[in-house]
Amino acid sequence: MLTKRILRLINLSIAIFVVALLFAAYWTAWRPLPQVSGRITAPISQQARVERDHRGAPHITAASWQDAIFLQGYVTAQDRLWQMDALRRLAAGELSEVVGKATLDVDRESRRLRMRRLAEEHAKKLRPDERAIFTEYARGVNFYIEQNRGKYGVEFAILGYDPRPWTVVDSILAGMQMFLNLTNTWKEDYEKMAMAAKGDPAKVDFLFPVRSGAEPSPGSNSWAVAGVRTASGKPILASDPHLEFSLPSTWYLVHLKAPGLNVTGVSLPGLPAVIIGHNDRIAWGVTNLHSDVMDLYREKLNVQTGQYLYNGAVQQATLENELIAVKGDKPLSMATWVTRHGPALLTDEGTFYALRWSAAEPGGFEYPLLDVDRAQNWQQFTAALSRFPGPAQNWTYADVDGNIGYHAAGKLPIRRTFNGDVPLDGSAGTFEWDGFIPFEQLPSFYNPPGGVIVTANQNPFPADYPYRVGGNFASHYRARQIRSMLDARRGWKPADMLAVQKDVYSAFGHFLAQQAVAAVERRKAGGPGLSEAVEVLLDWNGQMDKDSAAALVVELLFRDLRKTVAERAAPSKGDLYGSQMGAVVVERLLRERPAGWFNDYDETIVVSLRNAIEEGSKRHTSNVKAWKYGAWNELTIPNPIVGRLPMVGKYFNIGPVWMSGSSTTVKQTTRRLGPSMRMVVDLSNLENSFQNVTIGESGHIFSHHYNDEWDSYYVGNSLPMEFNKVNAESTLEIAPRR
Q1: Is 414 exposed, middle or buried (0-12, 13-18, 19+ CB in 10 A)?
Q2: What are 21-50's pLDDT values in tens digits?
Q3: Whether the Cβ atoms of residue 577 and residue 192 lie closer than 8 Å to each other
Q4: Three-class secondary structure of residue 141 per DSSP
Q5: Is the peptide bond before 34 cis (omega within 30 degrees of 0)?
């Protein structure tokens, strides 16, 4: 009898625990799911509606652009409020306020870069029309916050705080964070200086070419194909920009429809308007230009007084004090001296380095994207782009009239007598920017004779360009492979472009495999695993496939060779070298085999191949033929908050999964970054277009749309880009509040 009572108590306790657990899950994760159907009232001018399609993407129909932007803010907050809040906190250096000490280094970096101060300065100088756009978006976000107090989402519940109201400054912070992500090159300047100081400056320069000499003009992936090459006779535009993986997805799908506005595509949570997409007349894609818009200056600064030398005169730096709130601990104070060049970011043996960044310049933040969304032709499109400050981008274009085009856009510094690729003497007064390159003189093409425009982060500036333009440009391999595939045939259809986007052939990898086989044969080399490595390389077709042994051999061989080359230029500093041009440098050395680098290039290759086999054997198995590239190129995308929960957190992450592709393939994938979305637009029939994000439209872990796009993304498929014909799975009617 006693045993039965104990069992009943245990079962009752378990039942109560399960019920409590289910209730907690409902209260914190299910209850915050957005209302997507029915009827609500909101502070808008006239009746509006939001239709959600099969993947949860909102299609907003409103009576004015103001109401459309208001509702964009509202629906984005419905699905991504935590992501938006985390993004503005990341940019402002305010994560530690809700997370604790773990994010202090990140917050310090943002404070040193003065991100919030810059956003506040830019907000004061916004054009009235742009301020109105940000204001409407903020109103929409705040309407959602006000209507959903206490049920914002599981992340807010776990961390125990509520979001503050959204502001115009917060949207600018979101934009500034993307600006930083795509232009943050100052550490590379410092590392190049450190390598040159310990090695041969000429060899170090060789490691950092600004062009490979094989870029298809002009020069993430985006391309436009003219009608002479398509089955329909009208252009096709494709875009798949590469960014770091994140959960939720970087991009948010949205369709905005109002008088004078009918645009669909992807937006960034926290920012109004569509950034990449199409309207009823034109389509556009975007890739990072990778131009250098940051310079480091060595300042002769007295840290006690803030006085520093410039052009023979003593100047006074400004001292800015910051107080970083830390959850569960005392606030942390920090002080930063700001010179005429910018904030003093770091010190090395008493030398201070200040940063000048185009985003910190007056007029460094304009927002012409709603004008891009409304453009009806090339002239209106480029007129809007002429005001785009950055991050500097390659913009590809196509329209229903059959035109294709390309224009680089963004504020690129004019450096008359210097390159800015290493820290400069801040006291000299001779290393100053002379304004920015005029938009009209940035690279552009309109209806080129070949009927194809390809951008893949390669250098688009011709060798005889009148301005000095540096940057961490990508090697030519992706761009050349895209161009080669597009030139190989005609009669292209939209669905065919997906095959190009997911192509994983590496011309560099194939070349390196052939070099390795030839070197082993010429040297008659032997050793553990060497003959097996040669055997798999001989049969390899250059595909960086997740199940390939040869792909892993080549990847490990390249990494060892790259470090060996860097060590030859700068002894003991090889680990600093990670330039995107590394593959170009290695190929050039192996093809030309110049004197002064290696006495025996074949022996160098063989030694690196042995090192690669040893490294792979430690990580995998001594049987080279059993290696799998995907076991190396393995991806996990964690949910930053829920993914850390014990036992259950892993079920809300993506992966681990094996990925095909590499840094030199069209489908550029690493353990850190990959295609952030895929889009293909058919200008003959917009309903025949495709687009998908990486994981899903919603950030809510219990939403059906939390990760429903991942399977399609992973295999390289895409989803219909509904436009004029929306198959609505839900409709939310919004009436004006009286």
Answers
A1: middle
A2: 444 455 455 567 899 999 999 999 999 999
A3: no
A4: helix
A5: no
Closest CA to 297 of 403, 198, 181, 418: 418
Question: Residue 450 and residue 513: Cα distance in Å, rounded?
Answer: 32
- Do residues 126 and 134 lie in contact, with contact meaning Cβ atoms separated by under 8 Å? yes
Distance CA(623)–CA(631), nearest Å, equals 14
Q: Residues, the chain, total?
A: 738
pLDDT digits (tens, 9 = 90+) for 660-689: 999 999 999 999 999 999 999 999 999 999
Task: List all residues 6 or more positions away from 614 whose beta carbon is below 8 Å from its beta carbon.
Answer: none
pLDDT given at position 23: 41
CA triple 713-719-724, angle to 5 deg = 155
CA 88, chain centre distance (Å): 16
Cβ-based neighbour number of residue 510 at 10 Å:
19
DSSP 660-714: ---TTSSS---SSEEESEEEEEETT-GGG-EEEESS-S---TTSTTSSTTHHHHH
Ordered DSSP codes for 78-134: HHHHHHHHHHHHHHHT-SHHHH-GGGHHHHHHHHHTTHHHHHHHHHHT--HHHHHHH
Write the CA distances from 294 to 433, 503, 589, 722, integer angstroms.
11, 33, 29, 40
- Could you give the CA distance from residue 135 to residue 139 in angstroms, rounded to a whole number? 6
Residue identified by tokens 């004779």 is 449
Question: Considering only CA atoms, which of 311, 291, 299, 310 is closest in space to residue 421?
Answer: 291
Calpha distance 625→620 (Å, rounded) = 11
Residue 537 has pLDDT above 90, yes or no: yes
Spatial separation of the C-alpha atoms in residues 527 and 584, rounded to whole Å: 29
Tokens of 353: 């380095």
- For the stretch 602-611, pLDDT in tens is 999 999 999 9
Q: Which two tokens stand for residue 490?
A: 């005609």
Quick count: other Cβ atoms within 10 Å of Cβ 1?
5
Nearest of 294, 257, 299 to residue 64 by alpha carbon: 257
Q: What is the pTM of this model?
A: 0.93
Instruction: Pinpoint the alpha helices (H) of 492-595.
Output: 494-501, 507-523, 530-538, 549-569, 582-592
Residue 604's H or E segment, with its range, is helix 601-619
Residue 267 sits at the vertex; the CA angle it makes with 261 and 272, to the nearest 5 degrees, is: 60
Judge whether 249 and 230 are in contact, CB under 8 Å.
no
Residues 685, 231 contacting (CB under 8 angstroms): no
Cα(722)–Cα(711) distance, rounded to whole angstroms? 19
CA 109/CA 322 separation, integer angstroms? 12
Instruction: List all residues 6 or more positions away from 189 whose beta carbon is below 8 Å from its beta carbon.
Output: 294, 295, 296, 420, 421, 422, 423
Check: CB of residue 400 under 8 Å from CB of residue 683: yes
User: How buried is 137 (Cβ within 10 angstroms: 0-12 exposed, 13-18 middle, 19+ buried)?
Assistant: buried
Cβ–Cβ under 8 Å, residues 118 and 364: yes
Contact 406, 395 (CB under 8 A): yes
| Among the listed residues 51, 49, 48, 44, the one whose alpha carbon sits nearest the alpha carbon of residue 66 | 44
Q: Tell me the residue ranges of DSSP E strands in 135-292.
A: 221-225, 236-240, 242-244, 252-258, 261-267, 276-279, 282-288
**Helices and strands, number each (H, E), in the chain:** 21, 28
